[in-house]
């Protein structure tokens, strides 16, 4: 009879989905006496990677499943920086296509008593996303940009195809020792049906933003004896996570073309617009258009002209996705507004990262596929050092040596499962998940 190991995965973004997928799809291992029972928790009513996306029907009678599904935020990736993500998508059978974007860079001059608002392009880039010499990141030179053909909804479906225990609309309120066995974890959630308790977890994987994991970890720490080694290990994790900071981002889907450069000849796939600093002394704030759907004018606004899916009527207006709008789209044009938090790289976060993730074997001129990840000493909260109690693991885009993007989600989740949970449970996988 296989030994049951119960694991809670908190958060269903790409990191949580990847961890769940690997745990549910161990291809082969040297021992078959362990069986994982994985529970995926998500506070939203839909799985996280797709929960902010919006469906745009072609007509009033169009069923939602047949509508144009617009990913929010944009989920593009590039060859040189995303080897693990591309390998995962290939293993899943997720179709993706080249999307070598063109760019415009423009200045916004706000309206004044003397003139209307203007958006004038200052530079146009018609290259191939680094293949024609745009040297913004060495790792992406001579590689393509890609987007998934059928949107992230397909990614979510394939990653969760074998997941039996999915808890949607479940906001975790506390994490504490299981009253029946203090070496295990109990999770309490608020749901539309009321409070629910899930118990008996040997491991918990926090695949959430650091700021959201902190209060949950704190609730677990506070339930432990002050002198216990486990409490000290969790406290160290908390101090680490508190070093990661976030900034707010607004993403608006809309049909207002006035957020593009004024001249159609200057409009490209991605249109980056910032405020003309020379206009600041005479800025008339009453005419600037600040609202609840805008960010401060120190931001750079990016408007993506979305590619219509095959069969979407040409009589319908084009759809745009603007990230960090410094001017608001017309209210009647707005399809959705989403507020997201993004991890911010800082000296403090880079130092704190060493406790969660370390890299080996990569030189300054090597691609990330040549990097060998290694768990930081804080991972597991002492579980790999014989400290009694559950394994507490942390993954996400920010638990990675590079920019906090999709690749970090995949790499950190895989590292936590293979070097954390597997090792703690004596499982040796004899083949890679992709």
Can you walk me through this structure?
37% of the residues are buried. α1 links the parallel β1 and β2. By secondary structure, the protein is α+β, with helices and mostly antiparallel strands. The two termini are 28 Å apart. A seven-stranded mixed beta sheet has the order 8-7-16-17-18-15-19, with no helix packed on it. The protein is built from seven helices and 22 strands. Helix content is 19%, strand content 29%.
| Rounded mean pLDDT score | 90
* Fraction in helix: 10-25%
Radius of gyration: 23 Å
Largest sheet descriptor: 7 strands, mixed
Distance between the termini: 28 Å
**Number of DSSP strand runs:** 22
- Which secondary-structure class do the elements indicate? alpha+beta
Order of helices and strands: EHEEEEHEEEEHEEEEEHHEEEEEHEEEH
Morphology: elongated
Uncertain segments of ≥5 residues (pLDDT<50)?
130-139
Short structural description:
The chain has helices at 14-24, 83-92, 152-159, 210-222, 229-241, 347-353, 406-425, and strands spanning 3-10, 34-41, 54-56, 68-70, 77-78, 96-98, 103-109, 118-125, 145-148, 165-167, 171-178, 181-191, 194-201, 203-206, 245-254, 270-275, 301-305, 320-323, 334-344, 357-360, 372-375, 391-394. The chain has 434 residues and is of the alpha+beta class.
Topology overview:
Blueprint lengths: L2 E8 L3 H11 L9 E8 L12 E3 L11 E3 L6 E2 L4 H10 L3 E3 L4 E7 L8 E8 L19 E4 L3 H8 L5 E3 L3 E8 L2 E11 L2 E8 L1 E4 L3 H13 L6 H13 L3 E10 L15 E6 L25 E5 L14 E4 L10 E11 L2 H7 L3 E4 L11 E4 L15 E4 L11 H20 L9
Parallel strand pairs: 1-2, 1-14, 2-10, 7-16, 14-22
Antiparallel strand pairs: 3-4, 5-9, 6-9, 7-8, 11-12, 12-13, 15-18, 15-19, 16-17, 17-18, 20-21
């Amino acid at each position: 009879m296989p030994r049951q190991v119960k694991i809670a995965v908190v958060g269903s973004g790409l990191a949580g989905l990847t961890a769940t997928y690997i745990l549910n799809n161990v291809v082969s291992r040297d021992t078959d006496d362990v069986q994982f029972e994985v529970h995926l928790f998500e506070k939203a009513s839909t799985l996280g990677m797709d929960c902010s996306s919006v469906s745009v029907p072609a007509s009033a009678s169009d069923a939602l499943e047949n509508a144009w599904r617009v990913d929010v935020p944009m989920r593009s990736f590039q060859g040189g920086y995303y080897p693990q993500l591309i390998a995962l998508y290939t293993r899943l059978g997720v179709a993706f296509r080249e999307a070598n974007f063109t760019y415009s860079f423009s200045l916004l001059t706000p309206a004044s008593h003397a003139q209307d608002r203007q958006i004038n392009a200052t530079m146009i880039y018609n290259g191939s996303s680094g293949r024609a010499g745009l040297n913004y990141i060495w790792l992406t030179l001579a590689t393509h940009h890609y987007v998934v053909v059928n949107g992230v909804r397909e990614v979510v479906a394939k990653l969760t195809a074998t997941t039996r225990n999915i808890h949607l609309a479940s906001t975790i309120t506390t994490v504490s020792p299981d009253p029946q066995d203090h070496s295990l974890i109990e999770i309490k959630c608020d749901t539309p049906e009321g409070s629910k308790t899930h118990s008996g977890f040997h491991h918990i994987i926090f695949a959430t933003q650091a700021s959201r994991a902190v209060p949950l970890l704190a609730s677990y720490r506070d339930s432990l004896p002050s002198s216990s080694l486990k409490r000290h290990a969790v406290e160290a994790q908390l101090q680490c996570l508190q070093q990661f900071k976030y900034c707010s981002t607004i993403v608006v889907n809309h049909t207002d073309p006035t957020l593009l450069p004024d001249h159609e000849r200057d409009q490209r796939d991605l249109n980056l617009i910032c405020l003309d600093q020379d206009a600041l002394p005479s800025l008339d704030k009453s005419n600037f258009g600040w609202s609840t759907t805008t960010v401060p004018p120190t931001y750079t606004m990016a408007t993506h002209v979305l590619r219509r899916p095959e069969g979407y009527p040409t009589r319908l207006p084009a759809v745009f996705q603007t990230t960090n709008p410094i001017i608001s789209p017309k209210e009647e044009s707005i399809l959705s507004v989403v507020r997201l938090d993004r991890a911010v790289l800082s000296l403090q976060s880079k130092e704190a990262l060493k406790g969660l993730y370390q890299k080996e074997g990569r030189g300054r001129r090597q691609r990330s596929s040549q990097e060998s990840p290694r768990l930081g000493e804080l991972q597991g909260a002492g579980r790999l050092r014989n400290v009694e109690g559950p394994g507490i693991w942390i993954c996400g885009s920010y638990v990675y040596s590079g920019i906090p993007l999709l690749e970090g989600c995949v790499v950190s989740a895989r590292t936590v499962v293979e070097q954390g949970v597997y090792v703690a449970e004596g499982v040796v996988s004899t083949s890679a998940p992709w």
